[in-house]
Amino acid sequence: MFLRSVNYRSGTKRHKNRNYVLIFSLLLTATVAFVGILFPEKFNYISTKLFNVLVDKFSPMYLMLMLGIFFFSLYLAFSKYGDIKLGKENDKPEFSNVVWFSMLFGAGMGIGLVFFGAWEPMSHFVNPLNAVGGSEDAIRFAIEQSFIHWGVMSWVSYAVIGVSLAYFQFRKGRKGLISSTLDPILENNKYKNSIKLIVDVLAIFITVIGVAASMGLGTMQIGGGVEYLFGIKNTFKLQLLIILVITVIYIWTAVGGLDKGMKQLSNINLGLATILVVGCFFVGPTSEIMNTFVNGVGDYVNYFVSQSLFINPITSNEWVYKWRIFYWAYWISWSPFVGVFIARISKGRTIREFILGVIIVPSIICMLWFVIFGMMGMDLGYEFAKEAITCTDTSLFKVFSHYKGGFVFSITAIFLLFTFFITSANSAIYVLSMFTSRGSLNPKNINKIIWGVIQALFAIVFIMLGGLDILQRFAIVVSFPFAFVIVAIGIALVKELKKEKCRKS
């Protein structure tokens, strides 16, 4: 096997300086991007075919995997391994808790919160399962499903990838690559180098896809907001201009480094998000928001396991494919880059502190977010919600227009989309550059520029191919093989943790 003989890290003398991760990942991502641009119908046809096969045969696997990852995360946090530090014993956290939280929140959620914050609850409110649209039961269903999708399950895959990378990189001194976390289970495998190359290239590819998809959604919503507020038509030309402007900004901030660029952007994100949430909480139906949140938390805890595994055994599962499976696949597709990024900013924290900090605090904020914006939309009635969800790009701005200070909220949301856009792309550029620089914590700027351009190309592809529909299909397709990598990473981590505890005892 050629790749086995090459050994893409150490290599033979002839090949030792070749960066095969960079070479193969550039070839794969560039090829897929240009196929999407030049042959959009063929691209759409193939992704749809693959999507149909996966959701028909493997949907239960996604459900069981994500629930299993959740319980595995709790096991890590509360087991005897929870007090192990992600670094040397005298290492201290590089960032304060507030800055750490704002950075992981901006990288982990970003545009999705603004894009889906009002639209998803209203969609469930209008089209609930086993309830009448617009009823009180529909409201409970809408909040419960939003909590399921954006609560702890949206963070568990990030936590497992992140804690594994931080442990192996900062405590064991290994390279900051996804494949490095698999060393404990690949030690005696004769195809070790080939497997590690495939894993790293796959991680890069789905990182590009996941972030570019989010960028595409953000671009469409920014364009929708501009059209709704100022009457400027949300055409492909406007969307292309938005992508080009933001691409220049996020590459520039990525070149500036974590301390200068990302840290400042994360603080801006947190400030804008706080202003928007607090303002809407008091302007919106405050009493209903508080009551719904408390009731929603109760439903979430009560039905967490059953809802996490919900799938119809015989009848149609179109709703499950559109919502649950899409989100689980979407979080998996984001897990390499978010996991690596939060690992990079978490040196010096314990496993318990990392797991609980990554899962609990952001989940509570996400749940509050969806209650506030969801209730603002649902409180305006069934007919309003039914009309508002017809266009995802403008649904949030339509909600704001019915409340005092709506124009200010809309402008704030657009700015927040810009900063979330830049933050997500910025952190993804850093991670991609690190992956393709043999795990270097300080990758070259030329790598950041290359991956920034490729991300922008993919965002354009998703917009050209139809936005949310192609995103849902493609996220499920590309995330499928990485689901098995997450399982392998968990096994490898436990194996190494057991070794460490045995050596200490």
UniProtKB/TrEMBL annotation:
Origin: domain of life: Bacteria
Spans through the membrane: 20-39, 59-78, 98-119, 147-168, 197-218, 238-258, 265-284, 325-342, 354-376, 407-429, 449-468, 474-494
Principal location: membrane
InterPro entries in UniProt: BCCT_transptr (IPR000060)
Subcellular localization, as worded in the UniProt entry: Cell membrane
Membrane topology of this protein: Multi-pass membrane protein
Keywords: Cell membrane, Membrane, Transmembrane, Transmembrane helix, Transport
Family: Belongs to the BCCT transporter (TC 2.A.15) family.
NCBIfam families: bcct
Protein name per the record: Glycine betaine transporter OpuD
Native organism: Terrisporobacter mayombei
Protein's gene: opuD
